[in-house]
Amino acid sequence: MASTGKDGSDKNNKYDRQLRLWGDHGQAALESARVCLVNATATGTEILKNLILPGIGSFTIVDGHKVQGEDVGNNFFLTKDSLGESRAKVATELLGELNPDATGDFVEDHPEKLLQSNPSFFNTFTLVIATNLCERTLLQLSKQLWTNNVPLLVCRCYGFIGYMRLAVREHTVIESHPDNTHEDLRLDRQFDGLVSYCDSLDLDSMNKKDHSHTPWLVILYKYLQVWKQQHNGEAPKNYKEKTQFKELIKQGIRKNEEGVPEVEENFDEAVKSVNTSLVATNIPSNVKSLFEDPCCKQLNSDSKPFWILVRAIQQFVEGEGKGALPVRGTIPDMTADSERYIQLQQVYRNQAAEDVAIVTNKVHDLVQSLGRVRSKNAAFLRVVRCRSLEEEYNSATAQSQEIESHIADEDSDDEVVFYVLLRAVDKFYEEFNRFPGWYNDQVEPDIPRLKEFRFL
Amino acid sequence: MAAALPHVLSAELQKRVNECKLLVVGAGGIGCELLKNLVLTGFKNIEVIDLDTIDVSNLNRQFLFRKEHVGKSKSQVAKNSALSFNPETNIVAYHDSITSSDYGTNFFRNFDIVMNALDNRAARNHVNRMCLAADIPLVESGTAGYLGQVTVIKKSLTECYECQPKARQKTFPGCTIRNTPSEPIHCIVWSKHLFNQLFGEEDPDQDVSPDTEDPELAGDAGESAMKEKSSSDAVEAVERKSTRAWAMESGHDPKKLFNKLFRDDIKYLLSMETLWKKRKPPIPLDWENLPDTEVGTEEAGIRDQRLWAIKECCSVFSNCLNGLKDELSKQGEGGMLVWDKDDMLAMDFVTCTANIRAYIFGIAQKTRFDIKSMAGNIIPAIATTNAVIAGLIVMEGLKILNGDIEKCKTVYLNRQPNPRKKLLVPCTLDKPNPKCYVCVAKPEATVVCNTDKITIRTLEDKILKVALGMVAPDVEIDDGKGTILISSEEGETEGNADKILSGFGINDGSRLKCDDFLQNYSLVLNVAHREKLDEDKEFELVGDMSELQAKEEEETEKKREENKDDNQSKTNDVSDDEDLMVVDEPEEVICQPVVSRKRKAEDELTSSDTPKKVKVSDVQEEEDIVVL
Ligand SMILES: [Zn+2]
């Protein structure tokens, strides 16, 4: 990410509030994104606004319409003095002013024509957003994008209701930024570096200061050894045993001459961490299912780097990892002197580096050359897949029965009814070239006409 | 204008939209989005007020502002930008604080609906009270990262903003900050105080020098430190001159300041031996002999994201002093700087001094990026969340205009769909809390404190203004004589400020009548005298006396339980007279959905859903429909 924007502003300052949400890698992904908007409707420009402000690389608007009165009323980025001009052009200009870092471009043409004359035009984008596009064109567009694995976001708004649908064959995520994750401390699968570091420390012979500044991770390790000796090598398993284990740790707190326990924050932290730190190291289900995915099992020359990485990690798990993912290599903040905190941090980092090196080798074995490997985030791998629009819109493959079960009840307030309604409205529009209820005197007669559409 | 609307809003509602008058409080992240939505919905009379000016860090989301607007009034620029898109609306902009006495109940009564788009709790409290006093419906909102919330407040009908107590800001005892820091945040708070001592508004509560009244020094161990104190009177003499005056005289010489703060003061702390019996003692640094520190960090390069070595911290320290000194002198005689996380020098200053102090005390150092987050209490913010929330504000507003206020909801925006696949979760509005100290007919609250220690100044500044949200309180004792303690008229009661409560005969059971004329708010404050409070607190507020009794009984019970346990570690016996340090509150405080609310939302949905089959999850196996 370049640190200076096109307007000379410091990007770290301008984007500060969002960098804290998605980090540098997220920002870099955003800045390399090329987004195409089909139809500069109110919804369309609103979406683009929210993408341009945080700094996507570029946007292109495809729209063959001219600015009309109704546009000016509901679209903030079309003004009265632009009536009759190209909607694509006007919206591109006004949206472009939002952020000089995002380059804007437009094509004054109808998407259905563009699909005929130059279908590969759409293949070059990171994402295509289509708003209020009629079903026929939508299907053509989605077919084109599906084959080229470009994500398509379908949006349709109608008064107070609307829907949004993502159609992507496969979208892979290496850093999924999950909300809550356990620390990866491996107290149940102690690696050599951890063992030798902890064994080099002796709590009993420490002076008072060192004793109360020993990282709690080390304390847990030490008392785990004690516990295991008393319990046939088993760690505390259930609530009762964990409570007993906490007592054991508490007894390690130094006492003063009168036998009153001293204040040792690190021991308090150790006790508090028992429940969260003594969890079994396991492989998250989302990662497990990736290992089972055919794309992972059957690599070929067309396989994406993501799947090669998944395969390498899977091989690591089955081999060197002995059933566990590579060590993440980070530890939480804790009461400790910086010297030993940094040493402990290093112990985990070294192990992580070692594991990453093994995975990198495996990747090299799987394919000649690939860039940097980020397997320390192995637990955050994710894949998103959708059904194609074609399957959804084709009555043979549509999930008609389930949908019908939702709308069978006339008094239902299930939102699926809106989905059905909006699809019917699309059909209506295709036949009458206007929306149902558009003319006040047509509202009543339009209702039975709308009900006619049975696309299921 | 708004050509598509006839098909969406009923004719009657559209008429009301055209005629109604709105007040939008705040023209920031939510405010910009809200103004856009209001203009497009067809609202014709909008007044917007904001105290702030535009900063670079606003530009990633506050889309009515551009780079060339930085430094200008948010409300003015927002008005002009919105009008340039849609010139047919009447927008009045005020570049002012909503808590100013210019905006009294009569001002609020001009409006049909007030919409908050605020980023701080003090202003939210105030607008809440103004709307209660004027009996105007208020749409309240907040965002934090991907999360957001909208709710509606109407006198006597719903909970008010202050019906449920909010989590208090985290505070640190003064002696922890000044003498015995143990976490990065302690060093960061110290550095912010240092900034204010040197360049900003001097506040006696923000002293950064060693604290000789540390309660840990009490008893005979303290005596020796006291003796040490007299032997280091030279240092003290410098001290009493005020850090700022001393720094000015030395011309903000980096070497002199460094050696005072990081060598002499630390040596002085070391002389208080009691403090270091159980702690790792700090290591004083000398400007002439700085350690070579190797700081292992992955992300080399980006200045914000890597740890600075001590030598680098020192050169930054030196540059900052020069730069800040110049800025201060530009302000002229008696001028001062205000610490701002988005100000390059101010932020660099806190980063380097906090890290030097952390090094001295053997505390983990932090990157500038992390320190900014902690020092500025930064809440992440993006346009998308603000846009969603602003949309919901308008929806609630339309219900109110349509006469359907009882249909209004609190709506939470989640990051992930909930188990029922909802991203937006509506919950019914709660009835007013009969024990609320704001919105009931005769509000009462109880303050627990030591009446021999609390001064009238503390009562006014910390209890009435900060904790109870008053702006300009008048206070008299309900003793039949009507003794006036605090008057909002200037010059009438300043002489009382440093006197203690018991000096006016205030003791356990006293009742204080507190009035805020502007907020049209009267509160009876009951005083409960206690010699000592838990966790070194200066005072504590409780709803009423019965709550206090229940709480104390529960605590006695808890202590009894704890005493049974002989392994229980002894709680630090800290005396009660120390001042608490306050870290600024988050920019955009929102009330996160509490558990009971969530459950209620689910209950509500389930009950209305019961008659039909709930099978949503089945269909969505593949389609993954998320209901907004
Ligand atoms: Zn209330």
Automatic annotation (TrEMBL), chain A:
SUPFAM superfamilies in alphabetical order: Activating enzymes of the ubiquitin-like proteins (SSF69572)
Keyword terms: Ubl conjugation pathway
Organism this protein belongs to: Mizuhopecten yessoensis (Japanese scallop)
Organism phylogeny: Eukaryota, Metazoa, Spiralia, Lophotrochozoa, Mollusca
Name of the protein in question: NEDD8-activating enzyme E1 regulatory subunit
Pfam families assigned: ThiF (PF00899)
A single cellular component GO annotation: cytoplasm
Residues annotated as domain THIF-type NAD/FAD binding fold: 15-169
UniProt cross-references to Gene3D superfamilies, sorted A to Z: NAD(P)-binding Rossmann-like Domain (3.40.50.720)
Gene Ontology MF terms: NEDD8 activating enzyme activity
Stated family: Belongs to the ubiquitin-activating E1 family. ULA1 subfamily.
InterPro entries: APP-BP1, ThiF/MoeB/HesA, ThiF_NAD_FAD-bd, Ubiquitin-activating_enz
From TrEMBL, chain B:
Organism listed in the record: Mizuhopecten yessoensis
Bias (Acidic residues) ranges: 201-217, 574-588, 619-628
Binding site for ATP: 26-31, 50, 58-61, 74, 97-98, 119-124
SUPFAM superfamilies reported for this sequence: Activating enzymes of the ubiquitin-like proteins
Protein name: SUMO-activating enzyme subunit
GO MF annotation terms: ATP binding; metal ion binding; SUMO activating enzyme activity; transferase activity
GO terms of biological process kind: protein sumoylation
Pathway participation: Protein modification; protein sumoylation
